[in-house]
Amino acid sequence: MQQDSRLHKQVGSQSSAPEALTGGYVAEGFEPVAHAFQAAILSGEALGAACTIIHRGETVVDLHGGWKDTAREHKWVGDDIALVYSLSKGLTGMAAAVAVSRGLFSYDEPVADIWPEFAAHGKDAVTVGEALSEQAGVAAIDYKLTLENIGDEAAICDAIARQKPNWAPGDYAGNHAYTLGWIASEMIHRRDPQGRRLPQFFAEEVAGPLGQDVFFGLPESFDRDRIARIKGFGMPDLFINHTTMPWALTFKMCLPGTLAFRTLNNPLILQGPEALDSEGFWRVGQGAAGGMASARGLATLYNAFAEGGEKLGITPEVMADLIKGHHYPRKGLKDKVLTADMYYSHCFEKPFSAWEFARTRSAFGSFAVGGSLAFCDPEDGVAYAWITNQLGTAKWDDAREKLVRDAFYACLENRS
Predict the structure, then answer these.
(1) Are the C-beta atoms of 224 and 210 separated by less than 8 Å?
(2) pLDDT tens figures, 206-218
(3) Max CA distance (Å), the chain
(4) Domains in the chain, please, with CATH?
(5) Which of 64-73, 161-170, 225-234, 320-329 bottoms out in mean pLDDT, i.e. has the lowest?
(6) Which tens digit of pLDDT belongs to each residue from 244-293?
(7) 366 forms bridges with which residues in the sheet?
(8) Which end of the chain is least crowded, N or C, by CB within 10 Å?
(9) DSSP 3-state assignment of 204?
(10) Which residues contact 104 (CB under 8 A, 6 or more apart)?
(11) Is 54 in contact with 382 (CB distance < 8 Å)?
């Protein structure tokens, strides 16, 4: 891996804001990725961002740029972290894969065998795989969440167990925006011999062994100056600056009583995701939206799976399940919450005909509100992470991120 010192000079000479900076490393042959990354920063469309890409064990891209605060006083540096919203779901999927590999439970096992109370209102047949693939129908819960009670996992999991499904489990999938993390955490807690919940289990069994700054529940000792703060969007932006988010979702998110409103606005009633970027939420360790991570950390964790999972004790059988993907819902891929097709699988998203985010269908990862994306492709040997602190309004394929990803794959084609 080599440092592209020219990168810094180009920024200073081309930017209309001379104090702006992009920096980092690219391997020989991947210079176009640096130029694409620069374009996202210099356009002003990304306040700050970072991207790390590993190919067959070699870090070929490690870039950072822009600002980690809206006052534009502090530059984003390579090991800074940010709240990564639904990229958290993929991290939870990693923890679940470790749990399955350890024999704590199986993807085919009914959740109610692990958590008997979950069987209420006809959820008795829901399997672990279905629940982790967002087919259980508990995307919206009647329990009123607040930033004050969102750390009370025991009470929230009791509410999830009592919840009447939003649809017949297995018929559809729908974005379990928050509940996915608690479902996984409760299953781990009930079967782990030490009784650990997700934050501790993840720290000790996933991030810790790989030595990475990726957290569920930010430690008090972590330097807060290394956190890139979020510049979000308000509900009016969804209409005024509408990009590729489905119009049906845009309207339903604002209409009380709809499934989208009940799912996405509990706890944040029309406040927008920026409201989660707070000390209180950082500390909670919410497993579907509360992860804190650097791009380097995300790529390193995904690389463990790109290489087959042995570093984390992932069994070949579990890797095969992740690569193959969970079966589709009985009535198709249309997300009951987001109103667009999505392919959820074991806490990850998988490529499918409408969104081929990688070169092969072996890939799995997660995207997040605002445009961040992280995934691995075991067949291609790729681990990829792109995160930003300026939230866009795209459904997926955020234009800033996709520019970088397309440049990477073009370089990879030329390298082959």
Answers:
(1) no
(2) 999 999 999 999 9
(3) 63
(4) 87-223+276-290+306-349 (3.40.710.10)
(5) 225-234
(6) 667 676 666 667 889 989 999 898 765 778 999 999 999 999 999 999 99
(7) 374
(8) C
(9) helix
(10) 187, 188, 191, 192
(11) yes
- Locate 184 and state its tokens: 């996984």
Q: Smallest Cα–Cα separation from 144: which of 14, 55, 265, 259? A: 265
Distance CA 286, CA 221 (A): 19
Tokens 């984003």 identify what position? 76
Q: With bands split at pLDDT 50, 70 and 90, how would you rate the model's confidence at 42?
A: confident
> Any idea what DSSP says for residue 408?
H
Outline where DSSP puts E strands in 27-95: 48-55, 58-66, 82-83
260 SS3 class: helix
Query: Cα–Cα distance between 149 and 141 in angstroms, integer?
Result: 14
In which residue are the tokens 């030595």 written? 211
Torsion of CA 234, 237, 238, 239, to 10 degrees: 130
User: In whole angstroms, what is the distance from residue 378 CA to residue 1 CA?
Assistant: 21
Could you tell me the two tokens for 292? 């804190």
